[in-house]
Specification:
The protein is of the alpha/beta class. 25% of the residues lie in helices and 28% in strands.
């Protein structure tokens, strides 16, 4: 994909240039696409997204694309992250679990919005980078381990946030979500196409979740949620 020069920024840019790039991201990508939560917009104006991608990708840190992190993982495009955050409606004082936290961008955004965050990441290199990025944020606690287990030690969570696509809600969502909590992420459909969703526990004693599907997006599956292939003889 060839991107317009206006979406690129010199990795050696000044602090002022990076600030301008973040403001352009918010004003040209997010606000025209119905991202209206002022707290989300402010957080994304301030957080250094370029520090969450490899050096070779920093020139495109504020372009409207997802950026590769290695091992099949990506940093989701800014608009998709903003849509997930707006759907999550994160509130100060709440506790969030970020599954597939990668290099820490979404976890840091949630912490900057006043939440206590548990960030779970299975890739050791990404987990180390995320820990380094969030080092100045004591509200972010990192767990380097399986994405399919969540983290019961700090449960329950007001928000469970999948930073990527999954095929179905894993079992831990039933046991680690607080009463009245919600789950946000992307449900895989076909190929690299997924749907952004918000899920809440079913009421009236029913077992399971009620999913509200919001919009389609292109997003790779988180690795531990890739369906296994079966072969018929």
């Amino acid at each position: 994909m060839t991107l317009p020069a206006a979406t690129r920024i010199d990795p050696a840019a000044s602090t002022q240039d990076w600030d301008e790039a973040r403001n352009l991201m918010v004003d040209d990508q997010l606000r025209p696409s119905e991202i209206s939560n002022p707290r989300v917009l402010k957080a994304m104006r301030l957080l250094a997204r370029q520090a969450c991608v490899p050096a070779a990708q920093q020139a495109l840190a504020y372009a409207d694309v997802s950026l590769p992190l290695g091992a099949g993982r990506v940093l989701l495009q800014p608009l998709l992250t903003a849509r997930l955050l707006q759907a999550a409606n994160p509130l100060p004082g709440q506790h969030a679990l970020v599954v597939g936290a990668g290099t820490g961008y979404s976890a840091a955004l949630l912490a900057s919005l006043g939440l206590t965050v548990t960030a779970v990441e299975s890739d050791t290199a990404l987990c180390k980078q995320g820990q380094d990025f969030c080092a100045a944020l004591p509200a972010v606690h990192w767990v380097c381990g399986s994405l399919q287990q969540g983290d019961e030690t700090r449960a329950p969570y007001d928000l469970i946030y999948f930073d990527g696509a999954i095929t179905a809600l894993p079992t831990f969502c039933h046991t680690q979500l607080a009463a009245g909590g919600r789950v946000v992420g992307l449900i895989h459909k076909a190929g690299d196409l997924s749907e952004l969703f918000v899920a809440t526990a079913a009421t009236g004693g029913a077992d399971g979740f009620v999913l509200t599907r919001l919009s389609e997006a292109r997003c790779p599956l988180l690795p531990e949620f890739t369906p296994t292939r079966s072969f018929a003889l």
